[in-house]
Amino acid sequence: MAQYKYYFAYPLEAIWIGPRVSGDTPLGTGGWGALMKEVVGDVEVDGWQLRVERDGCMVLTPPQDSEVDQPISQERVDVDVKRWRDVCARLNAFSLLLASESDKAGNEASVSFRYLDHQEIVVTRGANGEDYPAFRMNQTAHNQWRMRRDLGSDPRNAGLLLMRSERSHETVANAINAYVSTVEDPTALRLLDMLAIAQSDFHSGKHNPSVVLAWFVIESLLNIEWNRWLESNNNVVDVTSDGEEIMRINSSRKQLLTGRDYTASIISQNLELIGLLKHGDLKDIDTVRKSRNAIAHKANTDFGLDEPMLALRTAMLLFSREFKVEVVPNVGRSWRTP
Fold first, then answer.
1. HEC letters along 119-139
2. pTM for the full model?
3. Which domain of life does the UniProt lineage start with (predicted)?
């Protein structure tokens, strides 16, 4: 029997979901901690339960199974690695969608986005972190979790929550809806995870990696569109004397039209000519492609703001069209590293 595991994390910029608190906010027996733990949204997708709490805590419960509790072996290690990738991808996908919905709201404070990694995602066997170990004090999850326990019921402690960036219930609900409509698709989940890293790199001043990752997303989406068009135009053109159907695009021709020599540049040109890309999109894609190539082939390339901003906008625009959910980048913040 598998032991039930929970993973939780917080956005690296403290937020508060719902109306702002004050010293007059009525508190129950659990004090500020109980208010911080109030559930403001929850959803299950493919057996994975996501719960969002008022202080921004995101709690992810994976499907119950026995694989992760098997004796140590190479197979068990592979399962653990895949499980961890899934955890990171799902938490960061929701975190990115929450940031996107907040930016779209237009009346919520913009905060920098950071990718949640193994230092920020905590595993526990208690639904509310009851057995949570004492991680380093500079870890966001540790600081936020300890705050729940330490604030008590003193009205003066409202000030510690008052300065957080506010997120509305509507913003969270919209983010959950977007999450449900995308993460059921493994490809969408993988690309969202990559976009989250690209957005995080931009906000950290790592502009070149942000461009490269955004380009990977763009190229993946171009390939999806191109393969779909090829399939839609593949049909029987003849029948042999043995009754075997001859396809318009056989395996050899498919390899020619999708192989490594059939580049993203050619594919994007084709998609524009057949009306699946706008001309303006083609120009932006071509510009991002050239930026990516400059990074790959010129060691002294060091981009400022314009190139990663265009790369993120283009990648998220194509992602939004493919998966029918509007995801927008936050390009209002970036700090160049010294």
1. CCCEEECCCCCCCCCCCCCCC
2. 0.88
3. Bacteria
